[in-house]
Specification:
Organism: Frankliniella occidentalis
Family: Belongs to the endophilin family.
Number of helices: 8
CATH topology of the largest domain: Substrate Binding Domain Of Dnak, Chain:A, Domain 2
Radius of gyration: 37 Å
Helix content: 55-70%
GO biological process, one term: membrane organization
CATH architecture of the largest domain: Up-down Bundle
Largest sheet: 7 strands, antiparallel
Distance between the termini: 106 Å
CATH class of the largest domain: Mainly Alpha
Keywords: SH3 domain
Structural class: alpha+beta
Strand content: 5-15%
Number of domains: 2
Pfam family, one: SH3_2
Shape: elongated
Strand order of the largest sheet: 1-2-6-5-4-3-7
CATH superfamily of the largest domain: Arfaptin homology (AH) domain/BAR domain
C-alpha cells in the first residue's frame, strides 16, 4: 500500500512538473499550445463577463439594501455559519421611536407633541415597509445571484481549470512525440530504443487527446448553460423592479396620509421664513419665496384628486384640507392654495370652501 502511494505521488509530481515546464516554454515562445475553437472562446469570454458583472451587481445591491459595511459583514458571517440574522431596527424605526418618546414628553395635547407622535408613527411604518422591501429584494435578486456564483459559476471555473490542466498535459505529450521522432535513426547507449520511446509517447498522446476532448465537451456544455442563467437573471431583475415599485408606492401612500393628517390638524406648517430667494419648483409645485403676500386665511376641502398640469399648480388629494386665497388677478377659475411648504394655483371646481 505504501509502495502504491509512493508511486502515485511520484507520478503526480512528474505530471505537475511537466505542466510547469510546458507553461514556461509557452510563455517564452519556445513551445506551441493547443487553441480552442472560436465558438468555445466566445462562450468563455461571455462566462467571464457574466461572472464579473454578477459579482459587481450583487455587491452593489447589497450595499443599497444594507449601507452599513459592518452590518453587511455581520450578515455574511451569520449566513456562513447558517445562523439566523439578528433582528435590527432600521434608522427610520429608531427615528420614529425617538419622535414618539419626544411627543409623549411634550404632551399629546400640544400641537408639537401631537405632530411628533403622528410623524413618529409614520416613520415606524416606513421602517417596516423598508424592512419588507429588503427581505423581498434579498429573495428576488441577492439570493439567486449568490447561488449562481457559488454553484453554477464555481463549477464552470473548476471545470475550466481542469480543462487547462488537460490542455497542458496534451501539449506536453505532443512535445514528447516531436522529440521522440527527432531521435529516430540514432542509437541510445542506455535505456529503450527511440522506436520504443516514440510508441510510448504516441500512446500517451492518444490518451491525453481523448481526456482533453472529453473535458472540452463537458466545459463547453456548462458554458452554453450561461444563456439559461441570463434568462433566470432577467426574471430576477423583473422581480427586483416590482419590489421597488411596491416599496415606493407604499412609501408614497404613507407620506400622503401623513400630510393629510398634519393638514387636518390645522397646524401652521409653512411660515415663510426670512428667505429672499425666488420661487423654486418642487415636485411639480412652487414654494413661496418668503416675500410678503396676502394671507391664506381660508380653508378648503379637496373634493377629488387633481394632478397638476403646470409647474405653478398644486397636486391635490381627495379629502385633504388646504389653505386658499383669491389670486388677485381677476381669474375666477383658480385659487392660490397652500399645503405645507408648497404653494400654487388650484382649480376652484375641485374645492369645497369651509371658511366663508
Amino acid at each position: 500500500m505504501d509502495s502504491f502511494n509512493l508511486k502515485k505521488f511520484a507520478r503526480d509530481a512528474g505530471s505537475a512538473l511537466s505542466r510547469v515546464v510546458q507553461l514556461t516554454e509557452e510563455k517564452l515562445g519556445t513551445s506551441e499550445r493547443t487553441e480552442l475553437d472560436a465558438h468555445f472562446e466566445n462562450l468563455a469570454e461571455r462566462s467571464d463577463a457574466t461572472k464579473l458583472w454578477t459579482e459587481k451587481l450583487l455587491s452593489d445591491t447589497e450595499a443599497v439594501l444594507t449601507p452599513n459595511p459592518g452590518k453587511r459583514v455581520e450578515d455574511f458571517l451569520f449566513d456562513k455559519i447558517e445562523k439566523k440574522r439578528p433582528n435590527r431596527l432600521s434608522n427610520l424605526e429608531y427615528l420614529g421611536l425617538d419622535m414618539i418618546d419626544a411627543g409623549n414628553e411634550f404632551g399629546p395635547g400640544t400641537a408639537y407633541g401631537s405632530a411628533l407622535l403622528k410623524v413618529g408613527q409614520c416613520e415606524q411604518k416606513l421602517g417596516t415597509t423598508e424592512r419588507d422591501f429588503i427581505a423581498s429584494a434579498n429573495h428576488s435578486i441577492v439570493a439567486p445571484f449568490r447561488k449562481f456564483l457559488e454553484g453554477e459559476m464555481k463549477t464552470i471555473v473548476r471545470e475550466r481549470g481542469l480543462l487547462e490542466t488537460k490542455r497542458l498535459d496534451l501539449d506536453a505529450c505532443k512535445n514528447r512525440v516531436r522529440k521522440a521522432r527527432s531521435m529516430l535513426g540514432t542509437q541510445n547507449k542506455e535505456g529503450p530504443s527511440p522506436e520504443i520511446v516514440l510508441r510510448q509517447a504516441e500512446q500517451d498522446l492518444r490518451v491525453a487527446q481523448a481526456e482533453f476532448d472529453r473535458q472540452a465537451e463537458i466545459t463547453k456544455l456548462l458554458l452554453e448553460g450561461i444563456s439559461s442563467s441570463h434568462a433566470s437573471h432577467l426574471r430576477c431583475l423583473h422581480e427586483f423592479v416590482e419590489s421597488q415599485v411596491r416599496y415606493h408606492a407604499q412609501c408614497h401612500q404613507l407620506m400622503q396620509e401623513l400630510q393629510r393628517d398634519l393638514a387636518s390638524m390645522g397646524l401652521p406648517l409653512s411660515t415663510g421664513g426670512p428667505s429672499t430667494t425666488s420661487a423654486t419648483t418642487l415636485s411639480g409645485n412652487f414654494v413661496s419665496s418668503g416675500r410678503s403676500s396676502p394671507r391664506f386665511g381660508r380653508r378648503a376641502r379637496v373634493l377629488c384628486d387633481y394632478d397638476a398640469r403646470d409647474s405653478d399648480e398644486l397636486n391635490l388629494t381627495s379629502d385633504e384640507i388646504i389653505n386658499v386665497r383669491d389670486p388677485g388677478d381677476g381669474n375666477t377659475d383658480y385659487y392660490l392654495g397652500e399645503k405645507g411648504i408648497l404653494k400654487g394655483r388650484v382649480p376652484r371646481a375641485f374645492l369645497d370652501i369651509l371658511d366663508d
